[in-house]
Amino acid sequence: MGKLYLVPTPIGNLEDMTFRAINVLKEVDLILAEDTRTSGKLLKHFDIATHMHSHHMHNEHKTVENVIKRLQAGENIALISDAGTPAISDPGFLLTRACVEQHIEVECLPGATAFVPALVNSGLPNDRFVFEGFLPEKKGRQTRFLVLAEETRTMIFYVSPHKLVKTLAEFVQYFGADRPVSVSRELSKLHEETIRGTAAEVLQHFDAKPPKGEIVAVVGGKITIKEKNKE
């Protein structure tokens, strides 16, 4: 029986690639990549010659069965996404679940993921938090916001740049203009920045300066009456 490795890749800065990740990618029989063109640049940079197959959100339902057969035949396979840790708002869950069901060993390497540095450098409470990933596009979006309006833990969202202003406006609408917000952009890259303030202040900033790049938004949880009394 082979083994599935979930291998994080850099979210921007190639120096964030670990020695262990490089060694695993060199030693496995096959690499499953979200986009073989994107991953090809990474593999070339680190002189990794392992063969790649495409494994992404549009074909993973069809490819899982074949991958399981190869693992059962004794092949070791690594799964990578375009950036960050597989299965965190990227393909990986379906294959991991199938491996667990078939008693195939799965090992996830530690490594880069965008929401952890965004949470830590936000300055918001991080002893307890909830990761929401990408919000629903249309159906269920309002319902989700109404639920999250009562959430007392710090909340983390992935937001595409062209939807950030709209999302910040929704933060103001559902969470209140004074709710603390931190938006991190282009983490680990040359133009990395983090903008902190109230929801209204951060909205005003990005409304005047449209954002570019990968974005993580961190929002403080609702303060309860008990907590207000402590203050």
From TrEMBL:
Belongs to the methyltransferase superfamily. RsmI family. It catalyses: cytidine(1402) in 16S rRNA + S-adenosyl-L-methionine = 2'-O-methylcytidine(1402) in 16S rRNA + S-adenosyl-L-homocysteine + H(+). It is an enzyme of class 2 (transferase). The keyword S-adenosyl-L-methionine applies. GO terms for molecular function: methyltransferase activity. This is Ribosomal RNA small subunit methyltransferase I. SUPFAM superfamilies: Tetrapyrrole methylase. It comes from the Bacteria. Its main location: cytoplasm. Keywords: Cytoplasm, Methyltransferase, rRNA processing, S-adenosyl-L-methionine, Transferase.
